[in-house]
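Supplementary Text 2. Reproducibility record for the structural model of the 85-residue chain.

All settings were left at their defaults, and a single model was retained for analysis rather than an ensemble. We include the record here because the model underlies the residue-level annotations in Supplementary Table 4.
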Amino acid sequence: MKLGFYHSYIWWINMNSLTDTLKDLEKKVAQIEIELANVRNHLALINTSIKDKKRPPLDFPVDSYGSWPKDLSLRREDIYNEWGR
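Retained model, structure tokens:
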């Protein structure tokens, strides 16, 4: 099927438009790849700095109330009423 001048012109415009769009997308993808590489480098630096630091031991306050009473019952039936609440 042979295209007329008008159809050929429209096809040429569409192809140029697609080519321009693809070029723009290639530029954006290249920029994103550069930004992603920067983020990965930054995360690698953060990870190495975190790994190098030692965390101090946990020091929780301790309240001592002595030993448990000998007759202390922790059975559910002894703690809750007859409805289980």
